[in-house]
Write a structure and sequence with these properties.
26% strand; five-stranded antiparallel β-sheet; 182 residues; 5 helices; alpha+beta
Length: 182
């Protein structure tokens, strides 16, 4: 018999490890889904996704016919109404089903692109010109774009924004975030 079934303290340790593993797996699946772009996916009748009561936070069954992706939100719709988000689904197999549907219909999505025809703030840092992004532009590019983001420091240097915590720190503290202008 496995050790985590034998003693009570081992069970709680095992349960905590499983929660951590579940969260990290869920975040990886969500990140992969967001990597396909942003927009709405209208599903064909034969692709409708059924989410059953035991698979979600609300304990209700839904038939999903549209999937919307924006920033870090994946919203599932039934007949034009938001019914739940990706984060409300507690079944990894169902999350994988959502990933596969998004992958199958990724041609309905697009990547966020900066509007270069409007005025924007630019900085010269380390002999390179950087476009300073608004918080919305930075979030869009982080989740759905294909650009590397950098924090621009007051001393004339830059540092790569390599994780979501750093992105949120920059946005919350009003630090400049930029992309290189070639």
């Amino acid at each position: 018999m496995p050790e985590y079934f034998v003693c009570l303290s081992c069970r709680s340790t095992f349960a905590e490890k499983m929660k951590t593993d579940f969260r990290s797996i869920t975040q990886e699946i969500k990140k992969a889904c967001l990597g396909f772009g942003l927009g709405s996916i209208k599903l064909e009748k034969d692709d409708y996704l059924w989410i059953y009561d035991y698979e979600n936070h609300y304990s209700l069954s839904f038939s999903v016919n549209t999937i919307k992706i924006d920033y870090d939100y994946i919203i599932l719709e039934e007949k034009g109404k938001d019914v739940l988000s990706f984060d409300d689904i507690y079944n990894i197999n169902k999350q994988i089903d959502i990933y596969e549907l998004i992958s199958k219909h990724q041609d309905q999505l697009h990547y966020y692109e900066l509007d270069w025809d409007c005025y924007f703030k630019a900085l010269l840092v380390s002999d390179c010109i950087w476009r300073v992004l608004t918080p919305d532009e930075a979030r869009h590019l982080w989740y759905n774009g294909r650009a590397e983001l950098f924090q621009l420091y007051d001393d004339g240097t830059e540092g790569c924004v390599d994780d979501i915590d750093r992105l949120n720190e920059c946005i919350n503290n009003g630090y400049d975030i930029g992309v290189s202008v070639h």
